[in-house]
Amino acid sequence: MRILLLFLFVQASATAFTQSVVPATLSCADTTVRPVLLIFSGSDWCQPCIRLEKQVLADSAFQNYATTHLSVVKADFPQRKKLPDAERRENERLADRYNPEGKFPHIVLLRPDGEVLAVLSSDAENGAAFITQIKNQLFRQ
């Protein structure tokens, strides 16, 4: 079962920067022992979310860092695109726990066990600035 979850996580990680990740990702994070970067986004309506995606998350510096240091999980709440029911339910479950106020974008850095380390700002100008923000929080712990 862990191998299947790990496979799903690796497969999902490859697309984590363009779409939501398979709901099993948080449980997979336990096996990778990496911090989890949980990103709440409204991919087709939230302008700050779209800017974050284009200027920060799609940046090659961030993608390279995330591939080796983080488990990236996206909880997307689009208005025009319909998500599969299982993904929508998982995103809502994550929002109930980590984003009860419904802020977008909302970025939470978690331990692999799901404990919150920090809420990060979405104001970074590029991937390098966002990596610095993440590292600052990780080294505080």
Major sheet, described briefly? 4 strands, mixed
| Strand arrangement, major sheet | 2-1-3-4
What's the N-to-C terminus distance? Answer: 31 Å
Mean pLDDT: 85
Secondary-structure element pattern, one letter each: HHEHHEHEEH
Low-confidence spans: pLDDT under 50, at least 5 residues? Answer: 1-23
Helix fraction, binned, reads 40-55%
Radius of gyration: 14 Å
Number of strands: 4
The CATH architecture can be named as 3-Layer(aba) Sandwich
Q: How many discrete structural domains?
A: 1
CATH superfamily, please? Glutaredoxin
In CATH's first tier, which class applies? Alpha Beta
Structural class: alpha+beta
Kindly report the CATH topology: Glutaredoxin
Relative strand content: 15-25%
Sum up the overall morphology in one term: globular
State the helix count.
6
Description:
There is one protein chain. The chain is an alpha+beta fold. It has a single domain (2-140), classed as 3-Layer(aba) Sandwich (Glutaredoxin), CATH 3.40.30. Helices cover 50% and strands 16% of the residues. It contains six helices and four strands. The chain has helices at 2-14, 25-32, 47-57, 60-69, 85-98, 127-140; strands at 36-41, 71-76, 106-110, 116-120. Strands 2-1-3-4 form a four-stranded mixed β-sheet, with helices on both faces. α4 packs parallel to α6.
